[in-house]
Amino acid sequence: MYEIFAFGYEFLSEFLPFLLALVLLRRHGSRGGYLWAVFFGLYIMAVFHVTDPGTLYGLLSLKPRHLAYLAEHINLIPFSRDIQPVGYGLNVVMFLPLGFLIPTIWEELGKLRYILAAGCGLSALIEVSQLLSLRGTDVDDVIMNTLGAVLGFGLYTLWDRLTGSRFRQQEAARELPLLILAIFLGRFLLFHRMGLIAVFYGV
To answer: What distance in Å separates the CA atoms of residue 127 and residue 150, rounded to the nearest whole number?
Structure first.
């Protein structure tokens, strides 16, 4: 039962700010555009669910003794630690949809440099915020995530040619960072897992 409540709480803390931001940014958007954008938002939420970025409450719970632990779990040198093919592969696959969805929804961002920036930026945001939940931060994850976004863009390019660009949306490019930020801040400010555990189990 706790898992159901926790999932619902996590979902609402991210989806409601995202939906509010989407409505404010796209007051005259088309129905199709809304559907694509909502699908993108759900994808970003799924990524956050898997990667578990840190929250404000994780930051507030950090103690000086945690600094040594964090220092040992930061890797800024590419491929300097044990290679984990499965983990690397999953990091690539997880960001494939990012490289596919961005140019589909925001046509003007359908260039490799924008996909590189989006993949690297989103991955870096996740990796840095994971320090707040005492998880490791690894530059290898950023590299693999970015590679996944680039490969996803390659799949989009092929699909776009096959479909004759029938599914492209021409929404404002400024939406992309603002929608991701709305989801991230919703989670950062509203999602308090330990608080839910305390309420649910009375501890």
So the answer is: 19
CA 183 to chain centroid: 8
pLDDT one-digit tens code per residue, 38-61: 999 999 999 999 999 999 988 888
Strand, helix or coil for residue 33: helix
In DSSP terms, 74 is beta-bridged to 137
Contact by Cβ (8 Å): 186, 18? yes
C-alpha to C-alpha distance for 143 and 137, rounded to whole angstroms: 12
CA–CA separation, 180 and 157 (whole Å): 23
Q: Provide the token pair at 7.
A: 């999932």
Residue whose structure tokens are 């046509």: 107
List the Cα angle 195/198/199 in 5-degree steps.
90
